[in-house]
């Protein structure tokens, strides 16, 4: 997979040289290229923004450097695909979810445009849409200083799903929100060695060797975590997919949550 990132803060993406993503870049599984938008400016101040038409606070990123940057980046060699998919991180975009990461991980070429200030002149987006697929995606209902943080989040979420990036492919299948993973229940508690730490023991069932019982315990924990932290996700699970034990666990959690609310 090739990923191009256009930004005015190229150093922001140094973490992409670390851990799984860094190793995947070294091995050639990922071809990640970071470009400085100011390369495509033509004044001595390397200006990338200006005041908004119609008035108002803040500055808007100019379309000229963005247009030239996208023209040159997408004209470079390095992929058999004619055009990439352009991703624009923006708080006004569609919420980015695990299914988005799954789908984008199958793309051969992605370009991320990291906006700043009040955003990029809308003509740049309109022009890009005439030449390639464009997605405006949001990582949450809040506003950041720029698109770099959101791009890091999305690149990691997507890149780890590219075949070969994770050492154990089953890890991605069992993730919270992964398609088919416990009906998108959140992942429950996890433990490793030692069996006792500061007087706290690992649940005995995990040491039993009874794989069926361990699977049931993990599902119970996933149900408890989801009911406590994201109860709205449970509404998406059809009633017939919850067995008697599932209902018992959920009833226990609801009673506990109700008792805690009364105590508060």
Automatic annotation (TrEMBL):
GO terms for cellular component: cytosol. Residues 1-235 form the tRNA methyltransferase TRMD/TRM10-type domain. SUPFAM superfamilies: alpha/beta knot. It catalyses: guanosine(37) in tRNA + S-adenosyl-L-methionine = N(1)-methylguanosine(37) in tRNA + S-adenosyl-L-homocysteine + H(+). GO terms for biological process: tRNA N1-guanine methylation. It is found in: Cytoplasm. Specifically methylates guanosine-37 in various tRNAs. Belongs to the RNA methyltransferase TrmD family. This is tRNA (guanine-N(1)-)-methyltransferase. The lineage of its organism: Bacteria, Bacillati, Actinomycetota, Actinomycetes, Streptosporangiales.
